[in-house]
Amino acid sequence: MSKLSRRAFIATGLVAGGGLVVGIAMRPGNQAKSLAAKLGPDGEDLVHTYIKIDSNNVVTAVIPHSEMGQGVHTALGQMLAEELDADWEQVQVEEAPAIGEYASYSAGRRYLFANVDFPNLVIPTVDGMMMNVADTLNLQITGGSMSVRTTGILAMRIAGAATREMLQQAAAESWGVPVEEVTTADSHVIHAASNRREPYAAFADTVAAMSPSQTPQFKNPADYKIVGKFVPRRDIPAKVDGSAKFALDVRVPDMAYASVVRSPVPGGSVVELDDGAARSMAGVIDVVVIPQSSVGGMLGETLSTEAVAVVADSYWTANEAVKTLQVTWSETGFESVDSDGIYAQFERDITGGTERQSDRVTGEVSAEFASAARVIDADYHVPFLAHTCMEPLNATADVKSDRAEIWVGCQNPLGFRRDVAAILDMDPEQVTLHNHMMGGGFGRKARPDYAMQVALLSRSVGRPVQLIWSREEDVRQDFYRPAVQSRFRAAFDSSDRLVAWENTYTNKNEPIEAPLIPYRVAAQDIGYVSSPVHIPFGAWRSVDHSQHGFFTESFIDEAAVAVGRDPYEFRAELLQDNPRHLAVLRRAAEEADWNRPLGAGRGRGISLQESFGSLVAQVVEVTVTDGQLSVDRVVAVIDPGLAVAPDGIAAQLESGIIYGLTAALHGEITVENGAVVQSNFHDYPSVRMREAPRIETHVINSGHDIGGAGEPGTPGIAPALANAVFDATGLRIRQLPLGNFDLNYQAEEEGVVG
Questions:
Q1: How far apart are CA 430 and CA 425, in angstroms?
Q2: 204: domain CATH number?
Q3: Of 11, 32, 390, 728, which sits 20 to 30 A from 175 (CA to CA)?
Q4: With DSSP H G I counted as helix, E B as strand and the rest as coil, what are the percentages for the chain, rounded to 5?
Q5: Is 398 exposed, middle or buried (0-12, 13-18, 19+ CB in 10 A)?
Q6: In this structure, is residue 301 part of a structural domain?
Q7: Between the CA of residue 163 and those of 100, 155, 215, 618, 675, what are the distances in Å?
């Protein structure tokens, strides 16, 4: 999922105005009095915005992020518990409610002021400003691999350390001893000199009335007992025993079910509807046309496109009835568009260079190409991709005249609440949103269209409704990872040194740094042209890194081969100015035994990608036999700065690799007559167990700023795989997915396929 752009934060901050900061500067601090009634049952003291302590000394970490299998509740709980000196066996986690007090202020501070060392005096004001911005934008984001590196650092650590200091102060005052003599350990405050030891719960009432520091003293990392260690994940037991509650598990009294269908061509509306067959089916309650609505969203304009829904007494009935609808959709002007036409458009726009925008320009690019001893060039393409989360899109709504309740699994609860309220013409305070664990998100569940639809359905039929999108609707009505073309040129001098790098691609999204390279090339010209298409855009795991990782790490491989260099050694030579990158690359080569000979029909490829603050290098080994590709082994090394939850990082690396491997081998959304062709896993397959390689993961704790883990594993698998195929066959793959190509085929032009 894409992080909010710096531009969005800046713009909103200017609109909000500096004067509004006064009076809210301390909002990220202790809000126990106002929040206690909203959060906790009796018997729990809210001692900090993010911490509850009950009478049994159980600490509950209140986590303002969604859990979708990535383990973020555990990792953030670890960071809070570490600074609090809490006993992990006595720590629980719960997701924060969708209310303004839990807006993602830390993300704004992280991305706008990442390199600013503020004086302690102004930090409350800065945090207050960022809270105002986040609250104004209704941001409660889980995405961009940012939870640990923003909320973890700027909220959980601070909350834990500040509460620990308040507990020490409260105990010192109660015992009449100097606060410097009071220590903490295992959820207890301790005064060794007098042999006093009391649980945190004994002082919870006192602490709840105190004001926390926003600049507390953090623990020395050498003293960590929880961070960086394996601890049992808090979400796993319920998932194993079946008690975990996802949005699909929601049941509300008198609840009906709904299924929807929308125009095959994005943007179409209902011209004519024959719903007679549907209405005649037993169990059908109503057929409802849901009007198109437009509401601003965290990723730009959010469209709740016109749809036709069947509401029935069971989902099976609703979905079967939808199939009987005879709908004539309006023309959109895109009915003649197909995939070939989109790629032809990209080619024209890149070649024409119309209004090309620059990402990076260094050195004398034109001069280096003019005097080059050798120039190579290549064009790469990747297709549209769908998200295909394990759990299909679903939401439940109960809408009354003056209030609404929504049950959903989403990545931006505050944003969903805002958009549902807008479409119902309600104030957000009239909407209560219950967020649940998700069976995958990958950016798709940051878009609220399905929640907006079910809210309108519930209001229309006057009872609670659970809407479930069919898998076919899920695939054909996605917000897709964009198709992209990327054109490269590279220049070498007479000594075979890479002296110039030129890259032009279509359509820029986030993150802005995705097309940049870490390699030492004096002259660089990297930029893009706009080539808009009608297929809706959405954030997809690792966002633009998923495309550019394939492009840049494949072409740097081509550059190495062009001058007869080993791809690993070539990269290493160009990374002499980036020792952190070099260390990750070198570790991957060592763990993979890079120079070990492989047999006939086998190949090895390498890649290096920086994304979301982390560095990942991957080495892939493949076997090609009679044109059939087997991905045998993946060695992945990540440097996230500090691994808060090493087992969680390993799991996310493995997950990201499998997700990216699915895209590299099989992923392709095509367009015919303006509409998406694919509809389910039979024509949009995922990697099966028989295709999954052995994955080995390794973590480097470099001490660098903490980076993300959920997305960085995805971008590097496609180029490492394509490079391995080249090593095994001599065929250069420049277009994905690989499954489209016969690896027995010998292309006429230097073994290039795609």
A1: 10
A2: 3.30.365.10
A3: 32
A4: 35, 25, 40
A5: buried
A6: yes
A7: 22, 12, 11, 41, 55
Using omega within 30 degrees of 0 as the cis cutoff, is the peptide bond preceding 737 cis?
Answer: yes
Q: Distances from the Cα of 333 to the Cαs of 18, 48, 268, 463, 646, in angstroms?
A: 45, 55, 10, 38, 51
411, 433, 468 — which closes off a domain?
A: 468
Residues of the chain with pLDDT under 70: 1-44, 107-137, 295-303, 745-754
Tokens representing 728 are 């095994």
The pLDDT of residue 28: 44
Residues 191 and 281 occupy one common structural domain: no
pLDDT value of residue 101: 86
Structure tokens at 583: 């260390």
**Same domain as 251, residue 235:** no
Same domain, 563 and 651: yes
Residue 247, classified by CB atoms within 10 Å of its CB into exposed (0-12), middle (13-18) or buried (19+), is: buried
Q: Cα–Cα distance between 207 and 122 in angstroms, integer? A: 24
- The answer on 489 and 455 residing in a single domain is no
Domain identity same for 141 and 235: yes
* Closest by Cα among 203, 644, 163, 143 to 413: 143
How far apart CA 22 and CA 402 sit, in angstroms, is 33
Separation of alpha carbons 511 and 55, rounded Å: 45
Gap between the terminal Cα atoms of the chain: 28
Cβ within 8 Å of residue 563, ≥6 positions away: 374, 492, 496, 498, 570
In terms of phi and psi (left: phi > 0; alpha: psi -120 to 50; beta: otherwise), the region of 184 is beta
Question: How many domains, the chain?
Answer: 3
Classify residue 475: in a domain, yes or no.
no
Are 353 and 489 in contact by the 8 Å Cβ rule? The answer is: no
Examine residue 361 and state whether it is found in any structural domain, yes or no.
Answer: yes
**Burial letters for 175-214: b for 16+ Cβ neighbours within 10 Å, e otherwise?**
beeeeeebebebbbbbbeeeeeebbbbbbbebbbebebbb
- What does pTM read for this prediction? 0.91
Instruction: Give yes or no: residues 575 and 652 share one domain.
Output: yes
Q: DSSP string covering 64-92, please?
A: -S--SSS-HHHHHHHHHHHHHT--GGGEE
Tens digit of pLDDT for each residue in 572-607? 999 999 999 999 999 999 999 999 999 999 999 999
Shared domain check, 276 and 198: no
